[in-house]
């Protein structure tokens, strides 16, 4: 493949003046702080704010109706009418808010914002109306009516405490307004059983006043436990899915092993029969050569499988030495040059003087797997290897690239291409023999040396695989 005078562009990588420079980031990296979701204690489904607002609205509307019925014919008409109009307007506004929130279905953030303000207003206004009713109507009612309204008013503060526990200040104000008014009114009334009723209202109010400070924490702990249970359930489901996927993968592996190993062994058997039956010595020689090639193919498959199983069992101990990346890439390019040439692919290793502590044998095996994968599956006409120092904390990383200008990796495969036994959805990959262990072995080898392997999905018109290692792998030596 010819190159422009200034260099060549290969799937996003630019080669200029003998240097390897991967292309800049083609995908925007969002910056800035992300929007944090509001406190789970008020956004979790365990706390349906709009539903709580609707339920307390129904209860309070019933209370307004009860006040109207009990005070009818006893309280002065002007005072009763003023209270009923005010309460009616308040309930109507509350109803409009609930209906608006129900129809709009706002985001959790907006729901919390609206109800955070609205619940404080509702608590304070509703309890002021209760205090107004206590001081405005109780003195006109018979004892039965007083006890009925007093009992009903005593339930309002607990209901508000349950509906909006996070509004501690508003809840305490409401408790003082309703329970405090009841206790003080009965204490000043002095009628039979008034002191007992006032004392009861005072004790209940004191208990609710104290509890108002503890309820938010209890709600938060309850929701946290619920979320933890849901997370544990989700983790368990993911673990079961992973186990099932691994089981299915190993089942596919056994099937693939039976098929792929059966082919060369069957071929060896046929060639061996030919060596026994062929009358011509030249035919026997060709058949014997076929036997050797079939057994070599089977040996290669078994070797790949055993190497992967050793990596999977952590039975490989890397021996780290200072490895020159340039000579290593040159050796790999020379090793795979015949296979690449047969496939019509050119291989180029970009010169570099970088050195890093690695296990040379494991590193070259991993790099060779990437090259072999590109030759077998990419459909490319050119493969480039190069190394680049990515600076960062603690010296940064060295990234060794293997970039081709082939068909690329399908999005459906990109996230799983390094999984064990995964052979991809592409028909070209499915048609090739093998167990789907090459890339997973590459990643395992890289991680043995504190590195990693990956696929850079930003590259277009090809695939960009990489090995990445810290500048000082398991040691203090810096790059030279």
Alpha carbon gyration radius: 39 Å
What fraction strand? 5-15%
Total strands: the figure is: 10
Instruction: Report the end-to-end length measured between terminal Cα atoms.
Output: 33 Å
Query: Major β-sheet, in short?
Result: 5 strands, mixed
Number of domains: 2
Helix-strand topology string: EEEHHHHHHHHHEHEEHEEHHHEE
Report the average pLDDT across residues.
78
Query: How many helical elements?
Result: 14
Query: Which spans of ≥5 residues are poorly predicted at pLDDT below 50?
Result: 1-20, 24-38, 427-433, 473-480
Q: What is the strand arrangement across the widest sheet?
A: 5-7-8-10-9
Q: Structural class, from secondary structure content?
A: alpha+beta
Q: What general form does the structure show?
A: rod-shaped
Helix content: 55-70%
Describe the overall structure.
This protein is of the alpha+beta class and 480 residues long. Helix content is 62%, strand content 11%. It has helices spanning 40-43, 49-71, 77-104, 108-137, 143-154, 156-163, 168-189, 194-277, 281-312, 325-342, 360-377, 411-414, 427-431, 438-448; strands at 8-10, 13-16, 19-22, 321-324, 346-349, 355-358, 382-390, 397-404, 452-455, 463-470. The strands form three sheets. It has a five-stranded mixed sheet. The chain has a three-stranded antiparallel sheet with strand order 1-2-3, with no helix packed on it. Helix 3 runs antiparallel to helix 4 and helix 6 runs antiparallel to helix 7. The two termini are 33 Å apart. The model is unreliable at 1-20, 24-38, 427-433 and 473-480 (pLDDT under 50).
């Amino acid at each position: 493949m010819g190159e422009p005078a200034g260099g060549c562009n290969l799937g996003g990588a630019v080669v200029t003046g003998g240097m390897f420079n991967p292309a800049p980031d083609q995908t925007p990296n969002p910056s800035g702080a992300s929007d944090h979701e509001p406190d789970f204690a008020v956004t979790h489904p365990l706390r349906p704010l709009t539903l709580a607002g609707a339920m307390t609205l129904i209860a309070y509307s019933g209370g307004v109706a009860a006040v109207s019925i009990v005070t009818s014919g006893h309280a002065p008409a002007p005072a009763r009418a003023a209270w009923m109009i005010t309460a009616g307007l308040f309930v109507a506004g509350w109803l409009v808010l609930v209906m608006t929130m129900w129809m709009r279905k706002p985001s959790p953030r907006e729901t919390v914002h609206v109800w955070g303000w609205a619940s404080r207003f509702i608590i304070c206004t509703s309890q002021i109306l209760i205090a107004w009713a206590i001081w405005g109507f109780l003195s006109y009612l018979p004892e039965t009516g007083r006890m009925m309204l007093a009992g009903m008013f005593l339930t309002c503060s607990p209901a508000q405490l349950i509906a909006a526990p996070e509004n501690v200040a508003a809840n305490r104000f409401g408790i003082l307004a309703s329970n405090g008014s009841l206790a003080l009114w009965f204490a000043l009334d002095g009628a039979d059983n008034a002191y007992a009723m006032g004392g009861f209202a005072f004790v209940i109010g004191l208990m609710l006043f104290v509890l108002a400070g503890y309820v938010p924490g209890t709600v938060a702990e309850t929701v946290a436990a619920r979320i933890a249970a849901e997370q544990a359930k989700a983790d368990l489901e993911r673990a079961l899915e992973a186990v099932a996927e691994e089981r299915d993968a190993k089942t596919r592996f056994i099937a693939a092993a039976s098929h792929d190993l059966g082919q060369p062994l069957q071929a060896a058997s046929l060639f061996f029969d030919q060596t026994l039956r062929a009358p011509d010595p030249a035919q026997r020689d060709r058949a014997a050569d076929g036997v050797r090639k079939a057994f070599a193919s089977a040996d290669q498959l078994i070797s790949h499988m055993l190497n992967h199983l050793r990596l999977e069992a952590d039975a490989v101990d890397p021996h780290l030495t200072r490895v020159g990346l340039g000579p290593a890439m040159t050796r790999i390019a020379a090793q795979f040059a015949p296979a690449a040439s047969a496939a019509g692919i050119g291989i180029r290793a970009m010169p570099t003087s970088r050195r890093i502590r690695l296990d040379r044998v494991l590193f070259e095996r991993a790099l060779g797997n990437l090259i072999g994968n590109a030759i077998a599956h990419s459909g490319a006409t050119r493969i480039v290897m190069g190394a680049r120092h990515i600076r960062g904390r603690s010296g940064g990383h060295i990234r060794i690239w293997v970039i081709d200008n082939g068909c690329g990796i399908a999005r459906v495969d990109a996230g799983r291409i390094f999984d064990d036994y995964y052979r991809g959805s592409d028909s070209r990959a499915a048609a090739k023999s093998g167990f789907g262990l090459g890339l997973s072995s590459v990643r395992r080898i890289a991680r043995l040396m504190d590195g990693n392997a990956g696929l850079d999905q930003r590259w277009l018109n090809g695939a960009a695989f990489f090995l990445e290692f810290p500048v000082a792998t398991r040691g203090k030596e810096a790059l030279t």
